[in-house]
Amino acid sequence: MTQVCITAYVYGVVQGVGFRYNTQRQAMVLGLTGYARNLDDGSVEVLACGEQQAVDQLMAWLKSGGPRSARVDRVLVEPRGVAEYKGFSIRY
């Protein structure tokens, strides 16, 4: 079982629409660790660590638009070194 970590930068209407909360719920269902946080430029940063298949599922969910209230224009993904996080948090 391969553990991976990625950072995704999600652009569009993704702040003030419950995006971080819904991302947290989705990540927890998939058994991922990491965090979601708003950035000053209006995007959301999502760091997700876990099994490759679960991370891929979260990325597919993000790219498909995330929660219904959001509008995702683009998602940029960068691989990260594997790190240990406890749970999946919302950062402020």
UniProtKB/TrEMBL annotation:
UniProt keywords, alphabetically: Hydrolase
Enzymatic reactions: an acyl phosphate + H2O = a carboxylate + phosphate + H(+)
Record-annotated active site: R20, N38
InterPro entries: Acylphosphatase, Acylphosphatase-like_dom, Acylphosphatase-like_dom_sf, Acylphosphatase_bac, Acylphosphatase_CS
Domain of life: Bacteria
Acylphosphatase-like domain boundaries: 5-92
GO molecular function: acylphosphatase activity
Enzyme class: hydrolase
UniProt keyword Glycoprotein present: no
Enzyme Commission number(s) from the entry: 3.6.1.7
Sequence similarity: Belongs to the acylphosphatase family.
PANTHER family according to UniProt: ACYLPHOSPHATASE
NCBIfam families tied to this protein: PRK14426.1 (NF011000)
Protein name, UniProt field: Acylphosphatase
Protein source organism: Serratia silvae
Recorded name of the encoding gene: yccX
